[in-house]
Write a structure and sequence with these properties.
Bound molecules: zinc ion
Distance between the termini: 43 Å
Strand order of the largest sheet: 2-1-3
Shape: extended
Radius of gyration: 19 Å
Number of domains: 2
Largest sheet: 3 strands, mixed
Helix content: 25-40%
Order of helices and strands: HHHHEEEH
C-alpha cells in the first residue's frame, strides 16, 4: 500500500496524539508491510531512517498505537518462537502477562468444520484454539 505522509499525519491527528517523526516512521512501517512484524522488526526498519531512535521508544509507541486502535497485537506466541515437547492433541493456556504457556487436556471439538472461506490464495487445513488469560502467579501478583 502506498501511503503518503499526509495520510499518516491524519491518522495520528484523528487519534488526538501529537505527530512526531518517530511516530510517523513507525506508523509508516506498520502500514506498508504485511508480515506481522515484531517490535524488533519495526525497530530495525525505523532506525535506518532515524538512527537515534531507541528500541524502547519503538516498543512504547507500538503499545500506544494498540491502545488507540491503530494496531492490533496478535497472538503473543508469534513474538518469539516457542517449542512444545507434547505432540499429543491438546490446548494451550497462554498467560497474557508473563507469556507462560500451559497445557490443558481439552480439545476444540473435532466436529467443528473448517470455515468455508473461498479464498483463492489460502487453503485452510486446521483451526487452532488458544485460551488466553492469567496464570496463577500473575493472578497472585
Ligand atoms: Zn503469568
Ligand atoms: Zn503444549
Amino acid at each position: 500500500m502506498k501511503i503518503t505522509p499526509e495520510q499518516l499525519t491524519k491518522r495520528l491527528k484523528e487519534r488526538h496524539i501529537s505527530v512526531t517523526p518517530q511516530r510517523l516512521e513507525i506508523l509508516k512501517s506498520l502500514m506498508t508491510r504485511y508480515d506481522h512484524p515484531s517490535a524488533d522488526n519495526i525497530y530495525q526498519e525505523v532506525r535506518r531512517h532515524l538512527p537515534m531512535i531507541s528500541f524502547n521508544t519503538v516498543y512504547k509507541t507500538l503499545e500506544t498505537f494498540c491502545q488507540l486502535g491503530l494496531v492490533v497485537k496478535i497472538n503473543p506466541l508469534h513474538e518469539v518462537a516457542r517449542y512444545d515437547g507434547n505432540v499429543n492433541p491438546h490446548t494451550h493456556l497462554v498467560c497474557t502477562r508473563c507469556h507462560k504457556v500451559l497445557d490443558v487436556d481439552w480439545q476444540w471439538p473435532d466436529e467443528v468444520p473448517l470455515p468455508t472461506l473461498n479464498l483463492a490464495d489460502f487453503q485452510a487445513t486446521e483451526v487452532a484454539v488458544q485460551i488466553f488469560g492469567l496464570c496463577r502467579k500473575c493472578l497472585a501478583d
